[in-house]
Amino acid sequence: MRRLLARRMKFHLFGAFFVSVGCAALYKFLIADPRKRAYAEFYKNYDPMKDFEAMRAAGVFESAPPK
């Protein structure tokens, strides 16, 4: 029973470290990178003036009435 806490603490510390690094890597490759690519693809062809004119024509803005 000697040094039982120290042994178990070391095991759980390393285990927690590797699990957290694994979760961070999975998040980066499965969520963050595809999200970055999706935003880049969206803004590659995005025309803010066209979007503004569409919202203006729909009557979304009070300060810019539809033409």
From TrEMBL:
| One GO process term, biological-process aspect | mitochondrial electron transport, cytochrome c to oxygen
Q: Does the keyword RNA-binding apply?
A: no
Instruction: Give the location in the cell.
Output: Mitochondrion inner membrane
Entry GO terms, CC: mitochondrial inner membrane; respiratory chain complex IV
What InterPro entries does the entry give? Cytochrome_c_oxidase_VIc, Cytochrome_c_oxidase_VIc/VIIs, Cytochrome_c_oxidase_VIc_sf
Q: What is its main location?
A: mitochondrion
Task: Write down the PROSITE patterns for this protein, in alphabetical order.
Answer: PROKAR_LIPOPROTEIN (PS51257)
Q: Which Pfam families match?
A: COX6C (PF02937)
**Would the keyword Plastid be found if you checked this record's keyword annotation?**
no
Which topology term describes how it sits in the membrane?
Single-pass membrane protein
Q: In which pathway does it act?
A: Energy metabolism; oxidative phosphorylation
Q: Which UniProt keywords apply?
A: Membrane, Mitochondrion, Mitochondrion inner membrane, Transmembrane, Transmembrane helix
PANTHER family in the record:
CYTOCHROME C OXIDASE SUBUNIT 6C
Q: Which family does it belong to?
A: Belongs to the cytochrome c oxidase subunit 6c family.
Q: How does it assemble?
A: Component of the cytochrome c oxidase (complex IV, CIV), a multisubunit enzyme composed of 14 subunits. The complex is composed of a catalytic core of 3 subunits MT-CO1, MT-CO2 and MT-CO3, encoded in the mitochondrial DNA, and 11 supernumerary subunits COX4I, COX5A, COX5B, COX6A, COX6B, COX6C, COX7A, COX7B, COX7C, COX8 and NDUFA4, which are encoded in the nuclear genome.
Name the job this protein performs. Component of the cytochrome c oxidase, the last enzyme in the mitochondrial electron transport chain which drives oxidative phosphorylation. The respiratory chain contains 3 multisubunit complexes succinate dehydrogenase (complex II, CII), ubiquinol-cytochrome c oxidoreductase (cytochrome b-c1 complex, complex III, CIII) and cytochrome c oxidase (complex IV, CIV), that cooperate to transfer electrons derived from NADH and succinate to molecular oxygen, creating an electrochemical gradient over the inner membrane that drives transmembrane transport and the ATP synthase.
Entry protein name:
Cytochrome c oxidase subunit 6C
Which organism was this protein described from?
A: Pygoscelis adeliae
The organism that produces this protein has a lineage beginning with:
Eukaryota, Metazoa, Chordata, Craniata, Vertebrata
